[in-house]
Amino acid sequence: MDFDNLLLERDGAVALITVNRPQVLNALNRSTLDELRRAALELKHDAAVRAIVITGAGGKSFVAGADVNELAVRTPAEYKELGVRGQHVFDLIENLGKPVIAAINGYALGGGCELAMACTMRVAADTARLGQPEIDLGIMPGYGGTQRLPRLVGKGIALELLLTGKHITAEEALRIGLVNRVVPAASVLAEARALAAELVGKAPVAVQYIIEAVNRGLEVSFDKGQFLEATLFGLVASTEDMREGTKAFLEKRKPDFRGR
Q: What is the mean pLDDT of residues 5-15?
């Protein structure tokens, strides 16, 4: 599959998506969103890929936000349509059924922060800056930022970030729970790849159901979340991987999970 604004590479069971618009700090325009959707769907249905890393090209930016040049000429109706389109793409990434790791190698602002939050986990360079500065353009997040941010960091902190538009450091993002790890900038991609490689060794069906249980469970009452968990627990117990995992444990060897 050919892309104009992305690079897609495979290294064994790990795929790497690179947003490749360094001349505009990897800003997300409509074309790039569409390519992210196509890449995500391709990897979702590729059984050989078990984990995905997303990063940005160049040394300055993960994704610096939406493309303001494009936004400036949109009508209100087009703004809404673009928001729905971006939400659809990020929902797809969040619920891909495979771990998606954001390697935040620089600015992750606006749509870039929203993309990172849609990922399963986030590894940030110590030089990274994150935030939702849409308020300073007289607009608001449109790709899920007002929904995912409070779920990650809590309502009060989320409102402060959304209403002030301030950029925060990677260390501050780690403190409030916005990212999972902070590493030296030179090693952020290697750290994300290593985490992906670790997750590749886990049982794929169990990984998929854990992600589903967490994502769906957050949207319902606690008792309904537990019902979902018990149902998925029962389903995963019927897999070949469950039998392989328990057998390997008893035989004191590393399991060979096949995703079945």
A: 96
Predicted model pTM = 0.93
What pLDDT is attached to residue 45? 95
Query: How many angstroms separate the CA atoms of 177 and 122, rounded?
Result: 10
Active centre residues (catalytic)? 114, 134
Residues 139 and 21: their CA atoms lie apart, in Å, by 23
* Position 73 confidence tier, pLDDT thresholds 50, 70, 90: low
Beta strands in the chain (DSSP E): 6-11, 14-19, 51-56, 61-63, 100-104, 107-109, 121-125, 129-131, 168-169, 181-183
The single residue listed with the structure tokens 């968990």 is 229
CA atoms within 13 A on the CB side of 157: 16
Mean pLDDT of the chain: 93
Euclidean distance between CA atoms 144 and 148, whole angstroms: 6
- Burial 106-143, CB ≥16 within 10 A → b, else e: bbbbbbbbbbbbbbbbbbbbebbbbbbbbeeeeeebbb
Q: Which tokens in the block code for residue 79?
A: 């703004």
Residue with tokens 């249905």: 45
pLDDT in tens, 80-94: 888 899 999 999 999
Name the residue with tokens 């930016």.
61
Q: What is the largest CA-CA distance in the chain?
A: 64
Buried b (16+ CB within 10 A) or exposed e, 151-171: eebeeebbeebbeeeebbebe
Q: In this structure, what token pair is assigned to residue 179? A: 């990212």
* For residue 189, pLDDT beyond 70: yes
Residue type, 29: N
